[in-house]
Amino acid sequence: MQSVEKHNYAFISYSHQDAQMAKWLQRKLESFKLPTEIHNEFEDSRYLRPVIRDKTDFDSGILSDSIVGHLAQSKFLIVICSPHSAQSDWVSREIRTFIDWGRIEYIIPYIVAGEPNAGGGKECLPKSLIDHVAAHPDEELLGISVAEVGREKAFIRVVSRMLGVSFDELWKRHKRERHRRLGFTAVGTLLVSLFFYTGAVPVSLTISLHDSKHKLPMAKNGLLMINGAEYPLNSLDTTITIQDYPGYYRGQSVEVAFKADYYEILSMNERITFGTKQLLEICLKRDSTFAIFSGTITDENEVPIQGARVTIDNKETLSNADGFFLITFSVDEQSEFKPIKITKPNYHDISREDECPSNNLKYIMHMK
Predict the structure, then answer these.
(1) Which of 108, 181, 290, 367 could form a disulfide with 334 if both were Cys (CB 3.0 to 4.6 A apart)?
(2) Beta-sheet pairing, 74-81 with 107-111
(3) Is pLDDT at 289 greater than 50 in this prediction?
(4) Domains contained in the chain, CATH given
(5) pLDDT at residue 349 greater than cutoff 90
(6) Is the peptide bond before 357 cis (omega within 30 degrees of 0)?
(7) DSSP three-state, residue 5
(8) Cα-trace Rg, the chain
């Protein structure tokens, strides 16, 4: 039997009650990447493959030819040791077969529960191992205990024994690889999260419109436009929140425009930030509709009167040679109607209230 060619790295023997642990160990072994200087002696790859796991009906009698064949072709026999496997005749027979072939040094006890040589319900070693050690004390096998070193370290100890390399060096390499994978995973998670965040998480865009303080009539046809989408406004001193603005607009500019009677047309580009909420404050500006009060002053023969004093609110000016006058008001001084008084020696005063805007009024003064 010693001359049988080996094709498997290992054969895992276990009680059906420890199947989950056996599956985990098989996956871990077959996914373990070998160090560069060590090559797979059974396959042209850098992995511990193949690792065979016994999936036979554990209640059957003698070992089948298939199981015996897999055992013979496996370099190592890994035994999942627990109180369950200690009571399993099947596991004990697989161990006995390996021992009978003179391959005791290739058996790796992997202790997942219980204790070696504890006896009773705590015993974890199958009977064939206990009997062999009792008969050959110098061939006692050192088990690898999950409870003592933890599952990851226990796994690396198994690999170390299979490869015949230093556990310390292999553990350091394993930790470096694990940190590298965690780093890649963290970066990948960050990129996926960033993609999801920028592409899927919407932005709540709030636009706050502020009108300057004034005594003027409000426009009734205000219109706000964002990237061509129109938002009619009933009030110009207001706040508009656009929910669920597409997340892919983050970092891009949107075109914001505003127009209404008596207001300057506004057009601007605003860059969408990378947050989930963004506030844009816009101060609306009045146009010159109510800012200018002007006209001409003549006598009854339509001859321009120069030097007539024009008083509107607390502002004064004199008409020029063409009888023309002009007074400009700031936004806070503007109103829909203005009281006007025009005086000039030897002429009757004019005093009345006119609607503003008044930039083409004509005033006629009469001689006394």
Answers:
(1) 290
(2) parallel
(3) yes
(4) 8-165 (3.40.50.10140), 207-284 (2.60.40), 292-365 (2.60.40.1120)
(5) yes
(6) yes
(7) coil
(8) 47
Question: What tens digit of pLDDT does each residue of 37-89 get?
Answer: 676 666 667 888 889 887 654 444 456 778 888 888 999 999 999 999 999 99
Q: Supply 39's token pair.
A: 């090559």
Q: Beta strands 277-284 and 203-211: pairing type?
A: parallel
Q: Which amino acid is at 121?
A: G
Alpha-carbon distance 106 to 126, whole Å? 16
Which of 113, 116, 49 has the alpha carbon at shortest distance from 82?
113
* Amino acid residing at 254: V
Provide the 10 A C-beta neighbour count for residue 283. 10
Spell out the alpha helix ranges (H) of the chain: 19-31, 65-72, 83-86, 89-100, 127-135, 146-149, 151-163, 167-199
Element (H, E) at 277: strand 277-284
Query: Which tens digits make up the pLDDT trace of 2-42?
Result: 455 678 889 999 999 999 999 999 999 998 888 776 766 66
Instruction: With 0.85 as the threshold, say if the pTM is over it.
Output: no
Q: What is the rounded CA–CA span in Å between residue 66 and residue 90? A: 14
Query: Which 8-state DSSP code applies to residue 3?
Result: T
